Amino acid sequence: MIKSIKTLLLVATVTTLSACGWHFKNNDVLPQELRTLTFESADEHSDISRTLRQQLQLNDVTLVKGQENIAKLRLVNASTSSKVVSVFKQAREAEKLLSLTVQAIVDVPNKGAYPLEVSVHRTFFDDSRAALAKSAEQEMIMRDMYQQASRQLIIKMAGLNKEINQPK
């Protein structure tokens, strides 16, 4: 009897919490100075710029244009590379290592500039006999890498909390 009441209470709690849209909020890890940003990029419409802007908005960061005395996130460079990791018996490429390196600078007024760099790596099986399918797969992998790099940049921005709040 008690076990069924506990089960019913647990089901009711889970149902209530999931139905009302309640979820854990861990977005408070970003320093207050980085809650409102100006985002700058050499190419505003590149894949990494769009993905980073989207991840910032998902983390409740307000993006504004051209205001003074607020923090600035500047996307400096995003570079991709690929290396052959293994080959087929016929000496054709079999597997590649795709790498994405993103460099950014967070400039906080009266606090300083903080360089950030993240790298993401993925392996990709490249079969030249299915070139069109592999091209689409590689694009999906790159989109995933952009998202992961953007999340890592936000994590590194959260890590600046101690440095930003340190008295100079």
Automatic annotation (TrEMBL):
Alphabetized, the UniProt keywords read: Cell outer membrane, Lipoprotein, Membrane, Palmitate, Signal
Compartments where located:
Cell outer membrane
Q: Name one GO molecular function term.
A: lipopolysaccharide binding
Q: Name one GO biological process term.
A: Gram-negative-bacterium-type cell outer membrane assembly
The main place the protein resides is membrane
Signal peptide positions are 1-19
One GO cellular component from the entry? cell outer membrane
Q: Does the keyword Membrane apply?
A: yes
Q: Which Gene3D superfamilies match?
A: Lipoprotein like domain
Pfam families in UniProt: LptE
Q: Which InterPro entries match?
A: LPS_assembly_LptE
Q: How does it sit in the membrane?
A: Lipid-anchor
Q: What function is annotated for this protein?
A: Together with LptD, is involved in the assembly of lipopolysaccharide (LPS) at the surface of the outer membrane. Required for the proper assembly of LptD. Binds LPS and may serve as the LPS recognition site at the outer membrane.
Q: Which family does it belong to?
A: Belongs to the LptE lipoprotein family.
Q: Which HAMAP family match?
A: LPS_assembly_LptE
On subunit structure and binding partners, the annotation says: Component of the lipopolysaccharide transport and assembly complex. Interacts with LptD.
The molecule here is called LPS-assembly lipoprotein LptE
- Identify the taxonomic lineage of the organism of origin: Bacteria, Pseudomonadati, Pseudomonadota, Gammaproteobacteria, Pasteurellales
The encoding gene is lptE
